[in-house]
Amino acid sequence: MPSATLISAQSFLVDRIVPDCEVIHLPSADVPGGILKYRIAVSAFRSQERPRRLKFVPAQNITAPDGSIIFDFRHHSPGNWAHLLTMHLPLLFHISEQLAIPWQQALILMPKSAPRYARRALAMFGLKTLFTDDIVHGAGVEIIADPWQCFWPVRPDWATTHSVLSALHAAIAREDRQLPRRILLLRRDTRTLTNSADIVALTEPLGFEVVYPEDYTPAEQAAFFMNAEAIIAVHGAGLAPLLYRTKNSAHMKLVELFPCGHITSVFRFIATQTNTAWVGVRGKLRPEYVKPAYRLSKPYRRFSLDNFEVDPRSLMLALRKLEIAA
């Protein structure tokens, strides 16, 4: 993963007399792989996800339809839009191709509580699904991925095969809504911008239109990343369709907005794999963020979903670095 830039809010942390924005150099880094094994076997597939039930109900036994090949994706939070699009589905696309399993034969097991948008994403590719927390008997693919993220370096190739892109472009062609070329991708429930009015006022004159992903179909969300020339996005699941850009896609520019409690390199890495120029912008620090950030023996997760404020100055620096603003 090549080096990149993260820009912080204006503060006295750069100069105690003249406040300024920190421009942080993120060094290049290796993204490790791992071991991926899979085989077709007759088995009893049990959910690894904890069912969301008010009271315990023993799992029942279900037999898969004859001719189906089971892919049990009831693990690693498949109800999360980003996990489903960037982990589970690329794994399905790769394994089905390697084992010559037609998509029509694949039966995708998902938790009974899987949200509507996850169901719509699977339907977009025409996949057969079974939403259940029960034990399912039949022929299926047993998968060992160690670690689970071991295929990060190669998953863009798996998500942009001819069959995947054909299904995706067919779904996009069925939509008729005009989509913006410059997008400000915001969130409503968590990680919302507390000064969104300031950010809209800054970006609107540059041609950016506010978009909330949940207001659009999965196909339209994929189209954002295939057709847009520039996107400013709050870090989160709304960025998942970035993976479905090909190496030959038209060059795109991406500014990723982070709350201090959730800085990751996930989409920075995908950007480098999909002909996308990337700059990160970190929101303002709060006093309660500081001490836990230096407790290196514990995960830094407590503030992950906090709403946050982005300094318009730091965002403007990012836009200038990407030559979106003068």
UniProtKB/TrEMBL annotation:
Alphabetical keyword list: Glycoprotein, Glycosyltransferase, Transferase
Top-level taxonomic group: Bacteria
Gene Ontology terms for molecular function: glycosyltransferase activity
Domain Glycosyltransferase 61 catalytic: 81-247
Name of the protein described by the UniProt record: Glycosyltransferase 61 catalytic domain-containing protein
High-level lineage: Bacteria, Pseudomonadati, Pseudomonadota, Alphaproteobacteria, Rhodobacterales
